[in-house]
Amino acid sequence: MKFWYFSETAYPELPPEATYNSIRVTLPNVNYDPKVGAALFDRYLDEWLIAESEGLNLMLNEHHQTATCVDPAAPVVMAALARLTTRARLLILGNPISNRRDPIRVAEEMALIDVLSHGRLEVGFVRGVPYELAAANSNPVRSNERHWEALDLIIKAWTHHAGPFVHEGRFFHHRNINIWPRPYQQPHPPVWVSATSPSGSARVGSAGFVQATFLTGFRGTPGVFDSYRRGWRDAGRTSEPPLDRLAYAPLLYTGDSKDTARKGAEKLLWYLKANKVPDYYRNPPGYLPVEMGVRIMRGAAPQLAASIKDLGVDEAVKNGIMFAGTPNEVHDQVVKFYDHVGGFGHMLMMGQAGFLDHDETAHGIRMFAREVMPRLTETLRDRAPQRSAA
Amino acid sequence: MRREVMTIAGVAVECFTAGEGRPLLVLHDELGLSPQAQFLDFLAQRRRVVAMSLPGFGKSDLPLWIDCVDDLSYITLGLLDRIGINAIDIVGCSLGGWVAAELTSKSPERVTRLVLAAPYGVKLGGVDRLEFPDLFAMSKTAIAEKSFHSPSFANFDAAALSDAGLTTIVRNRESFTLFAWEPYLHNPKLSHRLERAVAPTLFIRGASDGIVSADYVAGYAALFPNASVTEVPAAGHFVHLEQPEAFVSRTLDFLDRN
């Protein structure tokens, strides 16, 4: 299993939640003090470097117009990390390509980071959470169709080397596609796609990309992974997908004592809780399939994030949304989850959120890297895949 | 109303007809066509009412190539071709009013008289403000308050509706979003085309409309060579639903002046 460290680079110094309507899209940026923000980025970059020095790979993402993640341009921060690091694999998960107006620009940015990092980049593509649509002014309808056309076009731009080609698609048009630089890795960097629903993951499996799912827990993950495997086989492959095609992202905190672990885990829950967003940003018409819209009108929760917002540490661990505790406890939690979902090859650990300060974050990274990672690697080596519970 | 599915430009659309007399084309609002709506019944007592669910609404298809109101206006012209009508009176409500305005700017000879109820469609003001409140950034309650003189008009019991009924509601909202999102509820070119729309035109606005303002309607009407405006009291944005009698009486008074 490969291990990745991830922080959403939040800006947690906010007014009381009751005083604002939404932490995303509309919270006035007068609440962002650029000097505080600059110091936070110094810190977050340091923490990625600690993670690298402890043998972890690095992941980052982007969001827009939100205090929950003040990195609105993942390629910019990843370009910095490409030059600050030397060994770690670097994963952007991901580029919100259905909200980007020009996929060719994304292909160029990724090729450039791949060159700057001497071939250490892994490129994720995400459809993006629904609150991104208002910030991007991106039509919620057909974002899935835009996503796949953009993805195919980016891969073609990376792999086409004989001079300009033409793309006259449904959503994107170019007459002279001929990117410089081209990617360092050949034929192109590994491609990841995130999906939290079975319908999304079948298509990812069919394409054979790495599939990542976030916070779907014991209940949601088996269905997502099984759909991936089904999509993989339905595309005509005779073997099962290798484990390195599947990734899971939990909240993860390891402490040297139960007490330290508990305190760290509680602070990590900020990520779930600091997400006050009105329904009209949470579920814009057209983002979810019509059938899901009907279920919501009948009372279903509009979104995974809404259903897990109020979990405590114990419930989050019980649900497989969080792994937290002493090294022994975290090891056992991960193995139990691993068996439950039929195995996976990448652990994307969200190891920093909200008010988890630098020392606490560094402690969590080091405890995991030194005390859990080697044991997990040992336990999971050659472990026979268990049948998924889905 | 009698229902029939027609294929226009490769798109299967459901069409409805009712009544006898001079034909009248009705273009529905973003809530979709409800054949049971009272105003349709009142209109059909005097006219042969022709209506269809626009692509993406009701049971009409929405192929991937369709993505703007311009497309909807061409499908509507295709419907007139199909049923063999050269020129016709048109009533368009809200989104349907926008479709009617687009259609008239393209083929003014096909339109004898035009009634537009609180239509969207043109950009009048500056770059720093929307023409309409952002319907995608407000709660359902706020939308109901802006849409109706009596906001309880927006209430419905989801539990009492079938899955098919709810599916239509959700799909209509999705299709409206496709057409409304960007540019927000307007076609930047339409205002430059409307001098061609010479048909006598009546704008009807509910006095309590919180979405389409009186200033907007006045500015929109001024783009037409031959348009006037009337307001219906105790009605919001969906004036044809909330005050069907007043709406139909003003509509027919105007159309029958021919």
Description:
The complex is a heterodimer of chains A (390) and B (258). Chain A has 390 residues and is α/β, with parallel strands linked by helices. Chain A is 44% helix and 15% strand. Chain A contains 15 helices and 12 strands. In chain A, the strands form 3 sheets. Chain A has an 8-stranded parallel barrel, surrounded by 6 helices. In chain A, strand 8 (210-214), helix 7 and strand 9 (246-249) form a beta-alpha-beta unit. In chain A, helix 3 packs across helix 5. The longest helix of chain A has 23 residues, at 358-380. Chain A is globular, with a radius of gyration of 20 Å. Chain B is α/β, with parallel strands linked by helices. Chain B has one domain: 3-Layer(aba) Sandwich (Rossmann fold). Chain B has helices spanning 38-44, 69-82, 95-106, 140-147, 163-180, 214-222, 239-242, 244-255; strands spanning 2-8, 11-18, 23-27, 48-52, 88-93, 111-117, 201-206, 227-232. In chain B, strands 1-2-4-3-5-6-7-8 form an 8-stranded mixed β-sheet, with helices on both faces. In chain B, helix 6 links the parallel strand 7 and strand 8 (227-232). In chain B, helix 2 (69-82) crosses helix 3. The longest helix of chain B is centred in the middle third of the chain and has 18 residues, at 163-180. Chain B is globular. Chain B starts with a strand and ends with a helix. At the A-B interface, helix 10 and helix 11 of A face helix 5 of B.
Distance between the termini of chain A: 22 Å
Instruction: Give the total of beta strands of chain A.
Output: 12
Overall domain count of chain B = 1
H/E series of chain B: EEEHEHEHEHHEHEHH
Largest Cβ-defined interface: A-B, 23 and 24 residues
Please write the string of helix (H) and strand (E) elements of chain A.
Answer: EHEHEHEHHEEEHEHEEHHHHHHEHEH
Number of helices of chain B: 8
**Share of helix among residues of chain B?**
25-40%
CATH A-level architecture of chain B = 3-Layer(aba) Sandwich
Distance between the termini of chain B: 26 Å
Our Rg estimate of chain B from Cα atoms comes to 17 Å
**What's the Cα radius of gyration of chain A?**
20 Å
Individual helix count of chain A: 15
Structural class of chain A: alpha/beta
CATH class of chain B: Alpha Beta
Number of extended strands of chain B? 8
Main β-sheet of chain B, in a few words? 8 strands, mixed
Seen as an oligomer or otherwise, the chain set is heterodimer
- The chain-level mean pLDDT of chain A equals 95
**pLDDT below 50 for ≥5 consecutive residues: which ranges of chain A?**
none
